[in-house]
Amino acid sequence: MTEKPSPRGKLIALSVDGLRPEIYRAAEGRFPNLNEMERSGASAESMETIYPSTTYPAHATIVTGVAPRTHGIYSHLASLDPTERARPWCWFAAVLRAPALWDVARASRRRTAALSWPVSAGAAIDHNIPEIWNPAAPDPHSDFETPARHSTPGLFGEVAKLLAPMLGKADPDQLRGEAALYLWNHYRPDLLLVHFILYDAKAHAFGPASAEALKALESADRAIGKIREATSADPATTLVALSDHGFLPVEKEAAPLVAFAQNGLFARGADGSLSLRRLGAVNAGGSMAVYWLEPPSTDDRRRLEAAVGELQAAGVVQEVIDREKLETLQADPDAELMIEAAPGFTFSERMEGPLVSNSAQDRGAHGYLPSRTGMEATFSIVGCDIAAGKNLGRISIQQIAPTLAKIMGLPADILASEAKPLDLR
Fold first, then answer.
1. How does residue 273 score in pLDDT terms, banded at 50, 70 and 90?
2. Helix, strand, or coil here: 75?
3. Mean per-residue pLDDT for 391-401?
4. Which residues pair with 242 in a beta bridge?
5. CA atoms within 13 A on the CB side of 373
6. How many CA atoms lie within 13 A of 421 on its CB side?
7. Distance (Å, rounded) from C-alpha 198 to C-alpha 243?
8. Residue 1: what pLDDT?
9. β-bridge mates for residue 394, sequence order
């Protein structure tokens, strides 16, 4: 029997990319808005993410309520060719194989808006500025033409004009916060999805608990506070702060593609450059997926086994995830296997040089198994009829979409999710 939806309500979901709850809980007072949301509403002790624990498949799960094996977003990349210089990402909602919250909202004639939400380009969202860029651009982060082209007609220019006085003075999360407030106040959507990215960027570069990452989190916390203040007077509005995955500090970098190349799994030109042969790969930092792009020969399989053995002997692989375990994890059905990085290691896409570098370019990584300590994601929710200070325990990221649909009074049976909504009272 389908559970009866709640009365119609409005909802804002704010995703702080990469935030594990211990980071802001350990610094009581430094992140007052995240801390206050836990006191004023319900929150998860931790939220288990998906595999690999990366942004695009996790955000797809947040809005569909199903695992990657069902929604079809297995990683951030849309290309399996590790020799390709400018690899496209999974930007477009058309590749989703399961209904998203915006589809359910549209079916109920509800207005939707999204700002830099992953896998939302071309989505059936009324007011949308998606996360998308040209990977071949000299500086993809300065590419504004691509998101403008894929946004709701006229919306990017409208918001850009509003934010023009802040450019060069505010960081990306402050800009997104102001843009979110504009969308909320000007278009009054029933559902607003916002993606904050600065903490993730700084956690990668300097480490998840570094001064730089914590300063970035302060910025996201301020943006969350401004949005909460602007909406707190409306009892019909529910506010959610969540994340897609956690983070682990790393000290060393390993390059599995080097081992694959040394074992002849890529072609090598006369100039020594590597090109695609039969082996595809997608790096997630804490793990790497390996694919056969053409049926492998017995010799190909032997070469892959030898390369993985070398990685294990070097101490950079904690576990080899075979197809059977990938099915249990509801992960990529096309991967031949995935290798899980050992503690302290992150994988790179480097194809030349030493197999192991004792100094990693990044000081933080994710993409590891969701069971690894540190990969836990964040979930807090504040609104009418939500119990204050309620600890939800350890929840699944697949419970979010049906929970949000219920809060908004949307017909959750449109979703493909079999997860039960959270009990927030």
1. confident
2. coil
3. 98
4. 15, 379
5. 3
6. 22
7. 13
8. 37
9. 46
- Amino acid 3: pLDDT: 46
Are the beta carbons of 117 and 13 closer than 8 angstroms? no
- The pair of structure tokens assigned to 133 is 């860029």
- CB of 197 within 8 A of CB of 172? yes
Integer Cα distance of 113 and 195 in angstroms: 12
pLDDT in tens, 362-395: 999 999 999 999 999 999 999 999 999 999 999 9
**Coil, helix or strand for 249?**
strand
Q: For residue 276, name the pLDDT band (cuts at 50, 70, 90).
A: very high
Spell out the domains of the chain, with CATH numbers in brackets.
Answer: 10-247+372-414 (3.40.720.10), 252-361 (3.30.1360)
Q: Tokens 């060069």 identify what position?
A: 168
Q: Rounded to whole angstroms, what are the CA distances from 33 to 13, 222, 251?
A: 14, 7, 32
The candidate with the shortest Cα–Cα distance to 367, out of 348, 352, 353, 380, is 348
Tokens of 321: 């995830």
HSE-up of residue 111 (Cα within 13 Å, Cβ side)? 10
Q: What are phi and psi of 267, to 5 degrees?
A: -80, 150
β-strand pairing of 267-268 with 274-275:
antiparallel
Residue 5: the pLDDT is: 47
Q: Which residues pair with 382 in a beta bridge?
A: 239
Amino acid at 210: S
Peptide bond connecting 52 to the previous residue in cis, omega within 30 degrees of 0: yes
Enter the tokens of residue 160: 């850009």
Predicted model pTM: 0.96
Q: What confidence score (pLDDT) does residue 233 get?
A: 87
